[in-house]
Design goal:
Length: about 500
């Protein structure tokens, strides 16, 4: 029932209706109204041509253009209707206005210290330029005076989350893609939040409507309000009308008093802490920040909070709460967010930066691998330069079609000298990239089209922090539990799943 409910509220349901209309039109043309079939064919051809011309002239990533053009050309009625549906972006434009208004109000609090920028410029002009790019487009400056605690598994991060929530005296901000209200993880967190709200701590929660469509009751925000918890639902769903649900809030953020923040791949459901076994052992990662860089995640949360507010809130008192904190660790941190509200693909640029600037190795963990030509060429170029590029993928998938699609990239990557491994004990949900013992990216961003182009995401770019060594060590430990995929292995993949993968690849940017 939950799966049917999720399908009904998704774009897949609308796509199914459009496909049925396409079939009905074909039947009508060849059976009932054959006399008018030439007229109908002419009209659909003309309409398809108009849509293709519009798509060719859009300022958009080329792979998306090719997918839409192919879809419209092969199944014109379905393609045109689905194109018009997904390109109706009035609601998204309203969200964009609210989001950027919040950024404009809060950006005066998001300025890098001159000493930090000078120090970074002295150490590396290239890293200084990249940090400046992340600051300008990702919404957060570069920070020092911040410590990083890296978590190689969700269970450990969960215990620290509870401990930090218990310490809250001023405010708690939480933003999650999935919250499962029946999970032990949520029950224990909710009990702390209720106690804190009762004690006068300001508690705010954002959850994604689509992510929680089967894990939370409808109007759960009203339930939380009765506990004294402020709550906003991102992209409330209206079946067949919510085109903006394609752009989901995939972020996972916790901020406590401006002193600590958490981020990573871990949602609030029991599989993320291996309390519930769904796809074998669940491997996930995350981190906790203490110090000045917490302000970056505070600002990101407030920008999302303002999207559905009556008035745009000045978040100065919350953001500046981090300025007084000094953790004193070495290195630099840039918290950054990414949105589908522009054509600036910050998460993708961060991953490519790691590839293009590596001289020794780049290690990647991702649950999904659906990459465009530019990402493929960066991986290929790194390998051709002698960089050791390794990618860890799941062996037990959560979404079979995504797994079969990912495997269609294996052959080309392996032939270019890139090593592919699958995590034998189960499912990898970690999103990370680490290179040369210097740079690391950890957060919510998968190596697929959804994360890199369509979702609201967040992460931290870490440079020369002690945690980078912990991240590298975790990758190597995880590698010891993996099986390396060879070209001979690919020949023995199930032929049926290989066909599904290659057919699915045609629509990869839309999945």
């Amino acid at each position: 029932m939950k799966r049917l409910n999720r399908l009904f509220y998704s774009n897949k349901f609308f796509a199914l209706l459009m496909l049925l209309i396409q079939i009905a039109v074909f039947i009508a043309m060849f059976i009932w109204i054959s006399d008018y079939s030439k007229v109908l064919i002419g009209l659909t051809t003309l309409l398809s041509a108009v849509m293709i011309v519009l798509e060719v002239n859009r300022d958009e990533e080329p792979t998306f253009k090719m997918t839409w053009i192919t879809l419209i050309a092969i199944v014109p009625v379905f393609g045109v209707l689905f194109y018009l549906f997904t390109r109706t972006r009035t609601i998204t434009r309203n969200i964009s206005d609210d989001y950027h208004s919040a950024q404009d109000i809060n950006k005066k609090y998001m300025t890098a210290g001159e000493d930090v920028m000078k120090q970074l410029a002295l150490e590396s002009r290239r890293e200084y330029a990249f940090a400046s790019y992340l600051s300008r487009y990702g919404g957060s400056p570069v920070y020092s005076n911040t410590s990083v605690q890296y978590y190689s598994i969700g269970e450990r991060m969960f215990e620290d989350i509870k401990r930090e929530l218990q310490k809250a005296e001023k405010f708690i901000f939480m933003e999650f893609f999935i919250i499962n209200y029946t999970s032990r993880m949520w029950r224990e967190i909710l009990e702390i939040l209720r106690q804190k709200a009762k004690a006068g701590v300001e508690v705010r929660i954002i959850y994604d409507a689509m992510g929680c469509v089967t894990t939370l009751p409808r109007h759960y925000d009203e339930t939380l309000a009765r506990y004294g918890i402020k709550c906003r639902v991102f992209s409330p769903i209206v079946p067949l009308m919510s085109t903006h649900q394609n752009n989901r809030d995939h972020r996972k953020i916790i901020v406590v008093d401006g002193e600590t923040s958490f981020c990573g791949g871990i949602n609030i459901a029991d599989e993320y802490i291996n309390e519930k076994i769904r796809f074998g052992h669940w491997k996930d990662t995350g981190f906790m920040l203490r110090g000045a860089a917490v302000a970056g995640f505070t600002s990101m949360f407030l920008n999302m909070w303002n999207i559905y507010g009556a008035d745009t809130e000045d978040g100065g008192k919350y953001i500046t709460a981090s300025a007084e904190n000094r953790a004193g660790e070495e290195g630099f941190i840039v918290p950054f967010g990414d949105t589908p509200l522009d054509n600036i693909y910050i998460g993708k640029r961060a991953y490519i930066h790691n590839l293009d600037n590596a001289s020794d190795y780049v290690y990647i963990m991702t649950p999904y691998l659906v990459i465009d030509d530019e990402m493929y060429e960066s991986m290929k170029y790194a390998a051709q330069r002698g960089v050791d590029v390794k990618i860890i993928m799941p062996h037990i998938p959560d979404k079979p079609y995504a797994f079969y699609l990912a495997r269609t990239y294996y052959k080309a990557l392996i032939k270019e000298g890139i090593s592919i491994y699958e995590y034998t004990p189960g499912f990898v949900h970690a999103k990370m990239s680490v290179s040369d013992g210097r740079r690391a990216i950890v957060g919510t961003i998968n190596h697929d089209y959804r994360s890199l182009y369509l979702h609201y995401e967040c992460a931290a770019y870490m440079l020369d922090t002690p945690a980078v060594i912990d991240i590298e060590r975790d990758f190597k430990d995880t590698l010891s539990k993996c099986s390396k995929i060879t070209l001979d292995d690919i020949k023995h993949f199930n032929i049926f799943t290989r066909i599904i993968g290659h057919v699915t690849r045609l629509l990869a940017p839309l999945l």
